[in-house]
Amino acid sequence: MEEQNIEKKILLCLTGSGALLGIAEYITFLTVRFKHVRVIVSDNAAKMLPVAAITQLCEKVYTDEVSFTDKQKNHIALTRWADITVVLPATANIIGKVANGIADNFMTTTLLSSSKPVLIYPCMNNIMWENPVVQKNVEVLSGTQYKVIVGQESESFELASGKMKKNIAIPSLDELQRVVLENLQEER
Questions:
Q1: pLDDT value of position 44
Q2: Which of 9, 33, 140, 171 lies in disulfide reach of 99, CB 3.0 to 4.6 Å?
């Protein structure tokens, strides 16, 4: 699937999951294939990956320091701009906030004001993923414009323990593109 410069606008939301450490490859992949890619970086993600580095890879980067009064940078303008939103990697925290309507920062306010497809790719330790509260939040989101897409379980490095553990992994680059394109076509 080597399509390039697809005339669609992608909003990518980055949260503070350990998978964030490899996200530059995903941002680059999306910017090669889609004409417009903008990124919202959560505060926790910004602690793990410098925002200045992300700005080199995409059209625009937003953080919690965005002015809600600036008509070009507010959450409503951004959701109207985007054809689709992708939350990658998605922590239990962001899933819980969206499922419960908590809009306490720029990312959650933007996600909750979107009427277009929002693809949420969980990436967390299996223990956290299997928690009944997390599963309830995922269930709340099903049947809405929020689509939680669970990746393969795989052995990966766990930051908390410093060991290889089973975790829910983010999708391959080709799988991400396939799902984004499918959802953009459904939106027509």
A1: 94
A2: 140
